[in-house]
Design goal:
Shape: globular
Distance between the termini: 33 Å
Strand content: 35-45%
Helix content: 10-25%
Number of helices: 6
Number of strands: 23
Amino acid sequence: MINKIFALPVNETISPVISRRQLDDLELIVIDHPQVKASVALQGAHLLSWKPNGEEEVLWLSNNTPFKTGVALRGGVPICWPWFGPAAQQGLPSHGFARNLPWTLEGHDEDDSGVMLTFALQHSAETMKLWPHEFTLYARFKLGKTCEIELEAHGEFETTSALHSYFNVGDIAAVKVSGLGERYIDKVNNAEEGVLSNGVQTFPDRTDRVYLNADSCSVIHDDALNRTIDVVHHHQHNVVAWNPGPALSVSREARMASRVNKTIGQGDVQVGNPEFDERFEISQEDERFTRAVLNPAVVQYLLSTPCKFESMSLLADHIAFVDQVTDHRDPEQLIPALDLRCDVLDRIPQSAWT
């Protein structure tokens, strides 16, 4: 997807290194500077990519995320504002509305070290229906060998916010994060409080921890890409270590794939359950079939099952899970794995196959 962004035709040259381009519904600001390549969607002032010269891409962006008006983009650095997480009021979007609305490019500058961009979002009749406050919100980006992001809000209100960053890593199973502090709230484990005894967070499975006393700098250790990423925090109360875990792939047509969790579809589908849509990336070729398969009963089951799995693929009438069965001769491992497959198939209506 990132390569596709940089191959888009230029609609407007803003400066020698900054251009305006279009991908489907969304306008993008693209930076091609000797020190850095980056891109930002005007929807959400959403940093999509950041690649310092000579480095691997630092951010992850889904190849399947739809660039559609009002649809949240998956990857990069979404700006969650004026609330983070589920809305207090039913029917309002998770993580606020700032990431789904068009911002304006208010200013730009550049020098030998990189580019500075300023975006703005102001209250409107649309936002007042969702949140009855007047506001002006600025997002400033300084992009070069380092990436600095600053949010500045004006108005009379209280908010929560987050820079919901997705980092590109070589192998999630080999990644370690230090500098998070010790105490955390484990949202995967009924919001129980825990202690990180050895000071290093790993990601063997779905992870969603709110660290309560993180250091001023957390470090991502990525052995597969042979690099570290320093994440410096300013003015934050908490730091979240998060990895959604499994992926889903659904198709009506069986086809060969080197891995059962290989992406085979053309676009994300959201089922309307905020927790499910946040945890799972769905690749598909037939939206009607996908929605029939991922009906509320299946969605609720996949959210609640204690069985751990990395991905699920449904190819025609064949279902495959990448799970954690290490010995298929061990009944204690095999029976729950078979039950998982049967329970999912039992919740898919016969009409899905016709």
